[in-house]
Specification:
Number of strands: 2
Radius of gyration: 17 Å
Strand content: 15-25%
Helix content: 10-25%
Shape: elongated
Length: 61
Amino acid sequence: MGLHSSRNETVEVHRIQPHQAVGGSIIDAKGREIPITEDMIQDACQELEKRLVKPAPAKQD
């Protein structure tokens, strides 16, 4: 399934420790390194899904 699929499938993911760092970091405005957590990734994905705009159906000639 690609990004342009019209199927609406969801896959539920459960992590035992959602606040645990997943291997990356961001730098905040004060220059502090903040570990990226599973919760942060899930929140970002949910925000992107809210902003998703589905393309209009193709015109049939």
